[in-house]
Amino acid sequence: MLRDVSSVNADGQTTVRHQSDGLTCNSFGGNVPSVAVIATWILITLWLLALGAPAGVLASRRFGALAGTRIALWFGLASALLVLLLVNFFVPLRSSWAVAIAFFAAGLAVVAAITIAMTPRLRVGPSNTEKRGPFPYWSLIVLVALVLSIIPIAHAAFGAANQWDSGLYHLNAIQYASEYRVIPGLANLHDRLGLTNSQHLITALLSNSGWGIDAFRLQVGFFVFLVTIDLSLRIVDNRPAARSVGSLVLLAGGAAAIAFFLSNTDELVTSPSPDSVALLLTLVGAAYLADGLSTRRTELAATGVLVLACAGSVRTQLWAFTVIAVVLVIVFFRSRASGIRRPKALTLAASLVSGGLLLTTQVRDAIQTGWLLFPLDRFPLPVDWKAFDPAASRLWIISWARTPGAAPDEVMETWTWVGGWLTRATGDWSVRLTLGLLAVAGTLWLFRLHKSSVSRRDSSNLRASMWLLIPVITALTLWFLSAPDPRFAWGQIVLLGAIPAAVAAAVRLTGAAMPVAGALAALILTPAVLAGLVAIDGETREGETVTTFTSVPWTTSAALTPVPTPDLAVYTLPTGEELVTPTADDRCWMAFPLCRPYPNDSLLFRGDSVQDGFSSRMWTQ
Q1: Domain interval for residue 456
Q2: pTM higher than the cut 0.70
Q3: Is the pLDDT reported for residue 266 higher than 90?
Q4: Residue 26 lies in a domain
Q5: Nearest one of 102, 98, 64, 96 to 83, comparing CA atoms
Q6: How many helices (H) and strands (E) does the chain have?
Q7: Are 545 and 562 in contact, with CB atoms under 8 Å apart?
């Protein structure tokens, strides 16, 4: 017997629970929920393209319309993140679509005005775009693999969100950005909420739509969608610049990352994982940096820095990598300034937006924590909402990254942990991929598989991309000496192999490099994509609920694996305020607001509401 129990939540979504004692039923009535997800991604992408259109117009004069579209996409993303960060200082992101659209429109107008004012000479004169070659028909197999990969990625939006950190703090971070302005001392409630993650702000904005808070399920897949657009445009754009080292880096790293995501969608796609997003943005940023170094075009290098700034706004540890890359770019182009004319408009615009992302994320962190460069314990601010000393929390993160479950005093003053860490690290997908790519690079340099037609000068230009290994190795050194969990540095680990392999392929295989790399990428993607497509059956399984989403591109119903509902205990602070804490483990999941992982009587309210913020008794005693 099948009994339906329906309810309507605060977001206007209707949930139907099918209690069927293990029976399955078709819950969609012919509807394809993943199409609504893809349609949402397309609408957001068009918005980003509108925001980045001025940069795209400028770039198209130098690199063609397809490359201009790619650059517009990333300028639009960076501008959107910057605007969202600024907006959230003044209003909750779930206040209304009208407010959000107004701020986005204002941001677009400012970007357009600045770009036009900076580049009066580029509006006249002939274009110097490189000529495009014939359509690369070999690319069709790669394009098909990329397009098909989007279907299971979109379908994964309705799966289980199983990453531990999602229940620990990701979902609550999205909720606070949705319902409140930036909260002073929020880190006193939960230290992980003190660090800015700009990708969560996109979800907070989308929570205004019919997806509601479940928009978090679309987050990682959206960034995969952006990467597939960039990669697809690179593949079909048969110009020398599009067939550069950067395209090879993104083809190798991007295809492997998507295949890896499809192997564990619950943790890497459905969950709003910053590990996944940081990896993708790091690969894209490095690809544009490689393009800029190999072609000596500051516009491309500046775009790479811009994307890395987006990555830093997602995971704060990546700001170190971004800053080191900026220093490299400055040194590289200063040493080669003689006789090279370079337009400054896009470079200056990228610098302004990148600097804006750095400034706004650090100001936001300072307001939420009361420290500069949190979680470092070096620069406290003279404010009453200063969070507890972050040193202890940071030491536990480092010790668990070195040896899971170890206490700080077991691993901080010794190197005995390295042996066990090596054993675990070599099993990580990124390390294995890097070792394979390094083997490919070594093989190409040792054995001339194809007679190269690259001139000595072009070969030197292509090898300039190897300079990127300096920030990569420096960042990996800092990572190893601090918290060497591979997921914290997936991007840099992959680049350690992808950059040498891309340079070797570009020099040794020349015109055959992209077709060969494309064939390998399709080979990597195909098993994962096919497995993902086969798993889509449209049936409701045990533990799933049929949820109807309205006010999305069209009303859609999907068999959804709901977020767990934790058992909560109420506890009262000495000052009389009540909070809740989970009893089974430290994950609050959707319990909001005022849920923390464990009781802490040192917490103080700064006012009558959550918006007034929190402080700590430890600084007042």
Answers
A1: 33-389+426-534
A2: yes
A3: yes
A4: no
A5: 102
A6: 23, 10
A7: yes
